[in-house]
Design a protein that fits this description.
two-stranded parallel sheet; GMP Synthetase, Chain A, domain 3; about 150 residues; 3 helices; three-stranded mixed β-sheet
Length: about 150
């Protein structure tokens, strides 16, 4: 898959190429997206698109260069999913992602639905012109066959 790819490591930023942290970030983003798709599928949703970006923070500590933080930025298009269901699935995916579980780094996440896939759970609308305070108008409801 990665044949003859330029490689850079440590503090050598003059060399162009990929580095182990970049490869881990790419693997983490892909694995998280697949895990989130699986979590949403198990909840009965069918995601159209999941875009995950993983940003790695490296720090030069006493033991050497160490990956200390990974931030996942997730944007998903999921038809008919409520925000609360999406957030639950994203948190489960973060906990169950095989790459997340194998890393010894602080993992943070920002997950959001794209507007194309979001469904809001709305309270009943109130007809302000005909209803009194705290009264929801009844439209078309029948009791014993009579109109209300």
């Amino acid at each position: 898959m990665l044949k003859q790819v330029p490689y850079a490591s440590g503090s050598d930023i003059r060399r162009r190429g990929t580095s182990p942290p970049e490869l881990i970030a790419a693997a983490h983003a892909g694995s998280f997206s697949m895990t989130l798709a699986n979590e949403l599928g198990q909840a009965g949703y069918h995601p159209r698109q999941i875009d995950t970006t993983a940003t790695v923070t490296m720090e030069d500590i006493a033991a050497g260069w160490t990956m200390t933080q990974i931030h996942l930025d997730v944007i998903a298009t999921v038809p008919k999913v409520a925000q609360c269901d999406f957030v639950d699935a994203a948190l489960r995916a973060k906990a169950n992602c095989p790459i997340s579980r194998s890393l010894n780094a602080n993992i943070s996440m920002r997950a959001q639905l794209s507007q194309r896939g979001a469904t809001a759970r709305l309270l009943p609308q109130r007809n302000w012109s005909t209803a009194g305070p705290g009264i929801f108008p009844k439209k078309g409801l029948r009791r014993n066959g009579a109109n209300n």
